[in-house]
Amino acid sequence: MGLQAGIIRFSVDHPRLVVALTLAAAAGCAALGVTTGARSGWEIVDTDPENMLAPTEEVRRFHDGTKEEFSLHDMIVVGVVNEEDPDGVFNPATLSRVLRLTEFAKGLDGVIPGDVIAPSEVDNIEQAGPGVLRFERLMAEPPADREGAREVRRKARNHPMLDGTLLSEDGKALCLYVPIREKRFSHRVAGLLRAEAARLGMREMDGRRTDGDAFGITGLPVAEDTFGVEMFRQMAVSAPLAMAVILLLMLLFFRKFVLVLSPMIVAALAVVCTMGLLVGLGHTVHIMSSMIPIFLMPISVVDSVHILSGFFERYRRIGDPRAAVISAMEELFTPMLYTSLTTFAGFASLALTPIPPVQTYGVFVGAGVMIAWALTVTFIPAYTTFIPKRRLDAFGAGAGEGAGIMAAPLAALGRFAVGRSRMIIAATVAVIAVSAWGISRIRVNDNPTKWFVPSHPIRVADRVLNEHFAGTYMAYLVLDPASPAAPDPDGLAARLAPAAAPLGAAAGELGALIRERAASARTEAELVAAVDDWCADRAAEAPDEEAPRWEALLGLLSEERARADLFKRPEVLRYMEGLERAVAWDRLVGKSNSAATLVAHVHRELRSGTAADFRIPDTARMVAECYIQAQSGHDPEDLWKLVTPGYGRANVWMQLRSGDNRDMEAVARAVERHMAGAPPPLPLISRWAGLTWVNVVWQDRMVSGMLGSLLGSFLVVFLMMAFLFRSFLWGILCMVPLSVTITFIYALIGISGKDYDMPVAVLSSLTLGLSVDFAIHYLQRARECVARTGEWRAAAMEMAGEPARAISRNVIVIAVGFTPLLLAPLVPYRTVGFFMAAIMVVSGAGTLVILPALMTALRRRLFAPRAPAAACSCAACLAVGLAATAGTAFVLHQYRLTGWGGTTLAAGGLVVGAMLACNRLARRRACLEELGKPEGGSK
Amino acid sequence: MMRTAAAALCILAASAAGARGEEKAPTAEEIVNRANLVAYYAGADGRAQVEMTITDGRGRTRERRMTILRRNVAEGGDQKFYVHFQRPADVRGMAYLVWKHVGRDDDRWLYQPALDLVKRIAAGDKRTSFVGSDFLYEDVSGRGPEEDVHELLRTEGEAYVIRSTPREPRGVEFARYDVWIDRATFMPMRAEYFDRAGKKYRVVEALEVREIGGHPTVVRSKANNLESGGHTVSVFSDVAYGVGLPDDIFTERYLRRAPTKWLK
Predict the structure, then answer these.
(1) What is the rounded CA–CA span in Å between residue A20 and residue A708?
(2) Which region among A128-132, A666-670, A739-743 has the lowest average model confidence (pLDDT)?
(3) Residues 6+ apart with CB under 8 A from A932
C-alpha cells in the first residue's frame, strides 16, 4: 500500500509536474506516430479483411496462387437495369451508354483493360448459316436499331458463359465486370464509374424507382474497400459524438464542467497515446484497430467516473477537496488497479488468437487500458487540485439532487436483493438455463456486404443484381489430379496394336520402343510423347504408299496425346458437368462456368448449333479441337482462366447469389458430398479460392480464436480474482455477473437470430473486460464495508448507497453515450452501440442484484472470521492449478504446436503431481493451525 | 513466270527510283505496296515449315507446328494459303484454307479431323488470334495496303517509317500502326500498334531475315502482346519458292485428304 499512497500523495502534491509529464508523454506518443506515419507516406491504413489472415496462411497462398495461375482478378460488378423499356437494357440508347461506360472503365488507372467483361469485350462464336462458323465480338459497336439490340441479346443468351453472367436471364439487365489490379483500388474506381454513369444519364438504383437506366455497383472487393473508407469516416464522426454525449451525461450527474472535463481529457490522452504508439511502432490501422478509440473511451471514462463519484459524495461530507480526493483514491485504488488489470487481461488474451489484426488490436487496447489507468490515478487527482475551491462550493449543494434521484430506487433494489435472495438466485439459474439454450441457437455467419445498412447503394445493388443475375459473389473451385498418371506400357501397346500391326517390322520396333521408354518415363504423358515423336519422325520418312498406315497410327496417338492432358478427357469433363449440376441444386449457386461449359458450347457451334450438340464430345481429340477453336477469337488467353495451358488443372468459376459465409459453406459441403457420393473417374483433389471462400476461413478462425481467447481470459481473470480476494469462493463470486452477462448477451444473439459475425466476435473480449469491473468494485468495497460494519446486511444497505450510484452512473453514461452509434450507416457500429448498452445494463444489474443476493445466501462462508489462505484449501489450490494447466494447454492447442498428444499426457501427469503437492501444502502445520483443526491424523 | 514478272517489276521500280535521283524518296504508297509484295508475294508460290512458340504473360509456353503452302493467283492480288498442323499432336491434321481476295472478303475454311468437320468461316473479323498465338489471321495472310491510309513519317537509319491509319476504323482494334520498312530490301521489319487512347499495345517484329532463293525471307519473327506480356516467336524452316504447287490442292476436297506430297 506504500506505493499506492505514494502515487496519490505525489499527484496531489505535485499537480503541475504530473500534468506536464502527462502532456509530454501524450505529445511524445503522438509525435512518434506522426513521424512514423509520415515516413511511410501515410500508408498506415489497411482495410482489407483478407489481412485477418497472415499472408503466409495456406488459404491465402492458395487463393493468391490461383488468382495468379488462372489470371483471375478481384472484380467490381457494375449492373445496368432498365425496367421501363420493353427490351430492358437491350435498346440502342442504353447499349451505347454501356459501351461508353466500358470504354471509360478500360481507361481507368488500376483497371485491367484486357479482362473487362462487357458486351463489347467478349467474343461470340456461333453458326452463321449451314456449315458456316462465325467468330466475332458480341457487340463491336452500338446497334443502330432495336432489331440490332435484340440481336445482341439473342446472341448473349445463346452463349452459356454469358447468359446469367453478362446479361440477366430475363434479358432486362446487363452486368459489367471490371477487374482491378488490387482490391484497394476498388473504392476509387467505383467512385469514378459512378460519376461517369451519372454523366451518361443513368441513375443509381435505389430499389424503388423503375424509370430509365439505373446502375448499381457492388461485389465483395468494393464492399470491403468501401467499408474500410466509410469506417474511418464513421470513426471520425462517432467517436467525438459519443464523447460529447458522455460529457453531457456527466455534466448532468456532476454539474461541474471543469470537473467532468477531466475524464474526457483522460480518455482523449489515452486514445492519443495508444494510437500514437500503434502507428509509431509500425503497425497498420486495420478495421479492428480503428475501433480502438471507441472501445478505449468508455473503459477510460469508467474509472474516472468512480473517482468523481467518490469525490462528489465525499466532498459533501468532508468539505476539503484535497482530503476528499485522497480519501476517494485510497478506497478506489485497489479496485481500479484490478479492474484495469482484468480488462487488460481480457484484451491482451486476444494476442493469443492466430489472427494478426486481432492480436494488434488486443495488445494495444490492453496497453491503452493501462495507460488510461495510469492517467486516471495520477492526472485526475492532480487535476482536481487545480479547481478553485469557490468553484466547487456549489458542487455539494447541487449534488444532493443527482444522488437523490437514484438513491431511493437503488436502496429499494438493495433491500430487494437481500430480502429475496433465494428467488433471485432461482431466477438467475433460470436465466442461465434459457441462455444456454439461446447460445445453442447461435448462427455463425458473416458477409462484408451486409456490414452496410440495407439502404446503402452497395446493398441495394447487391439485392437487385443478385435477383437478376446468377450472382455477384465469386468462388473458384480448383480441381487437381491427386497424382499424375503412371506409365502403362502394356495398355498403350494394346490400344495402338490395331494400327501398328499392318506396319510389319515397324510394329515390332514400336513394341520395343514402348517398353524401353516406359522404363525411363515418369508419367504416362512422357511415355506417350516419346512414342508419338518417334512415330511422327518415322511417318515423315515413310514412302508414300505406307503413309495412310502411319496416318492411322498417328491418329490413335493423337488421341493418346490428348488423353495425357487430364482435362481433355471427356469423362473428366463430364464429371465436372455433373459436379456443377449437383452444386446448382438450389438458387445459391446461380451458375458456374468451367472448361466443360466452354467445350460443350464450342462443340455445339462447331456442329449444328442446336441444343442436342451442347455436350462434351466423345474423344479427347475432339475436345482438343474444341479447345483450339476456343482460342481462335480476340482473347485467346481467356481459356486459361478455366484450365491451365497444360490442361492439368481446372478452375470452376462459381457465381453465388449470396456472400453469406454459411451459404458458401453449404456450397462447399455440397461439393464434398457429391465428390464423396460419386467418385471422379480418377482421383481429383478439390480446393477453394476466391474472396467468398477466404472470408469463410477467416471467420472460422475468428470464431474459434475469439472463443479460445474468451475462455483463456476467463481463466486468467478468475485466477486474478482468486488472488485479489485471496479466496477461491470470492473469485467465483466475482465471475458470476460477467458470466451471466456473457451468456445472456450471446443468448440474445442466438434467440434474436442475429448472425454471430466479426463485430460480435470482437465484442466478447470487451464484454469480459467491462463487466468484471463492476463486480470487482462491488466486492472489494463490500468487503471493506463488512470489515467496518461487521455485518453483511448493514453493509449491503451501505453498498446500495454511493457504490451502487457510482455503478449506475457508469451504466447510464456508457450505455447512453454510445447510442449515437445506433445511427451509423454501418451495421458493425450499430452492433457495437447496442451491445455496449446491453453489456452495461446486464452487468450492472447482475452486480447490483445477483451479487447481494448470492452474498446474502453465502454470507456465513464469505465472511468467516478468518478466511483461510488459498494455499491451505486443497480444493482451491487444486482448482487454481487445474485452471492454469487448462489455460496453458488451451493456448498451446490454439497454436497447434501440439495436438492432444504426448505433451498433453505429460501435462496431465503434472496436474496429478500438482494435486499431490496441493494436498501436501494443505496439510502443512500452519494451515492446520489456521483451520483450527487438531494436529495429527495422517502425516 | 510469276516470279520473273515480280523480278521485272522490282527492277523497274528500282530503275524508276534511280532515274528520279537519289534524293527523291518514294511515296508512302509506293513503299507500302513494295513491302507488301516483298513480305507476302515472293515467288509464284512458296512453302515453309513454321514452329511457333507461344509464351503467355506468366512464362508458360505452348508449341504449334505447321506447314504453310501459298500460291499467288495474281501478283500483288489474290492468293491461296493452305495451313496444315502437325503439333500439338492432338490436333494433328487440322487444316486451314484461305482464299485471299483483294477488295473483298476472303474465303476461309477450317478442317478438324477428329470432329470430321469442314466449316466455312464467316467473312468478317480477321483480327482474331491465329490458333491461340499472338499472331492474327491477318498477320499470316497479310493486310491489304488499300485498307489503310499511309503516311511516310520519316526515314530512320536504314528504314522508312510509315504510319498507317485504317480507312474504316470499325472492325479493327487499332487506331493506327507504325511500320519500319527496310530501305534496301523493303521488308517490313517492325510494326507497332496503337489503341484509341494512343497507347502502344502490340509489336510485331522480324527477328531474322535471310536471303532464300533470291528473296529476302523472314525466318524468325515475333509478336508481342504488351498488355498481357505474352509473345509468340515463329521460326520458318525449309522455306522454298517456286515449288510448283498445283492449284487443285487449295480446295475444300484436299482439306480432308491432306496433300501429303507437298507437305513434306
Answers:
(1) 42
(2) A128-132
(3) none
Q: Rounded mean pLDDT of A272-286?
A: 89
Q: Where are the domains of chain B?
A: 27-262
Q: What pLDDT, on a 0 to 100 scale, did the predictor assign at position A178?
A: 96
Q: Is A562 on the interface with B (CB under 8 A)?
A: yes
Q: In this predicted model, what pLDDT tens digit does every residue of A37-47 receive, in sequence order?
A: 888 777 777 77
Distance between first and last Cα of chain A: 38
The CATH superfamily holding the domain B27-262 is Lipoprotein localisation LolA/LolB/LppX (2.50.20.10)
- A619 and B114: CB-CB below 8 Å? yes
Quick check: A599 pLDDT over 70?
Answer: yes
Q: Inspect the interface and report whether the beta carbons of A544 and B260 lie closer than 8 Å.
A: yes
List pLDDT tens digits, range A881-902: 666 666 666 655 555 544 445 5
Report chain B residues whose CB lies below 8 A from the CB of A554: 89, 92
- Specify whether the CB–CB gap between A603 and A613 falls below 8 A: yes
CA distances A286 to A275, A292, B167, B243, Å, are 12, 10, 55, 72
Query: Within an 8 Å CB–CB cutoff, is residue A144 touching chain B?
Result: no
Handedness of CA A159, A162, A164, A167 (dihedral sign): negative
**What does pTM read for this prediction?**
0.85
DSSP state letter for A850: I
The more confidently predicted of residues A247 and A42 is: A247
C-alpha cell of A597?
Answer: 461449359
The residues in A 150-169 lying below 8 A from B, measured between CB atoms, are none
The verdict on a CB contact (< 8 Å) between B113 and A620 is no
Nearest chain B residue to A628 by CA distance is B131
DSSP letters for A264-316: HHHHHHHHHHHHHHHHHTT--EETTGGGHHHHHHHHHHHHHHHHHHHHHHHHH
A561 in contact with B, Cβ within 8 Å: yes
pLDDT tens per residue across span B85-98: 998 999 999 999 99
Q: Which residues of B touch A639 (CB under 8 A)?
A: 132
CA nearest A196: which of A94, A118, A100? A100
Question: Closest approach of chain A CAs to the CA of B161, in angstroms?
Answer: 27
- Interface pTM, i.e. ipTM: 0.91
Q: What is the pLDDT of residue B20?
A: 42
Within B91-243, strands assigned E span: 95-100, 107-112, 117-121, 148-156, 159-166, 176-182, 188-194, 200-212, 215-225, 231-241
Among A109-118, A923-932, B212-221, the range scoring the smallest mean pLDDT is A923-932
Chain A interface includes B229 (CB < 8 A): no
Nearest neighbour of B90 by CB, restricted to A568, A637, A645: A568
